[in-house]
Amino acid sequence: MKLTQRDLFRATVDHKKEDAILFYADFTEDLEKRVRTHYGIPEKQSYREFFDMFSPCDIMPKRKCELPKYDYTGYYQDIEITPDAHIAEDGILHIPGGMYHFTKLVSPLRNASTLDDLEKFHWDFFDPESFGTEHMEAEVQSAHKKGLVAAAWAGELYERAWQIRGYEEMLMDMVSDPDMADFIFDKLFKRNMFWAVESAKAGVDYIRCGDDVANQNAMMFSLDTWRRFQKSRWSEIYAEVKRINPEIKIWYHSDGNISEILDELVEIGVDIINPIQPECMNPFEVKKRYGDRITIDGAIGTQTVMPFGTPDDVRKTVKEAAALLGEGGGYILAPSHVLEPEVPIANIEAFIETAQECNCCKKKR
User: Fold this and answer.
1) What 8-state DSSP symbol labels residue 219?
2) Is the pLDDT confidence value at 265 over 70?
3) Cβ-count burial 185-203 (b if 16+ within 10 Å, e if not)
4) What is the CATH topology of the domain spanning 5-69+110-359?
């Protein structure tokens, strides 16, 4: 019979070779509209379902009740808040940017200078006690009955920390005022641990998490700094969820060149790495080095072949990735990030058609 997506996911992450391969792609809002128009995808149908893409069900804790409407404007007295800007419920100011979906983030705690300043912030948004989890196990069971994978988001540490504190301010804190950095990291850690533990108890197949910790060439801070503030906390979370469910898988995201920390990510329990940007790292070398220790999710360049290659370039790249990265399992075929508006529809066609051919989804076992 045909493999379900959950069957194929388990085979993939367990590095068992199957005829089929999981694949997916995501689009910015404008590009999604054009893809839907081009293919005639019904408005209410998921495009992932339409193309038979990998479609895990996201299972998340839910707010027990609506949070109070805090007035964060006091944090932005030095900034003109334009009518098209908005302050999110976590206090971060979003100002529309000049390109596509990008916004300028202004951090509410950018001017904080003492721990007392941090303590006065409204941290209810990150309070684990504000979330309910009673629904999660039933949602996982429902996904499994449909043959689908159940996944859960366990949050970010560094990325959310700097968004609240300020980019330069958080980098400075980690070097010169670690108590300030620890305060914010601990708030996020407690929320992330709660989400991850409750998801593991509910029976999800994998937990997604991560931070963008590297640029195109290298890590954005020293290894000691990463170990001190991030690795230590993620390792505790991973250990706890794997204690609850030894079969659960950990999916970790970071853009950029993270080759310096791959060994340590594997050491603390990461099973799936996303996205292994081919512009920054050689995914074939990663596959060769780590063999059946990690699964690669991504590796199709969104800075190169998808926007600027020809359809033939895309087909060649997808075939090579499926054959070489997918050898013996351990590969989920996908672009390395969301596809932006400059990606031609012809290249999307080439990606989907070639992925479907490589997928061999109609073969029987």
Assistant:
1) B
2) yes
3) bebbbbbbbbbbbbbbebb
4) TIM Barrel (3.20.20)
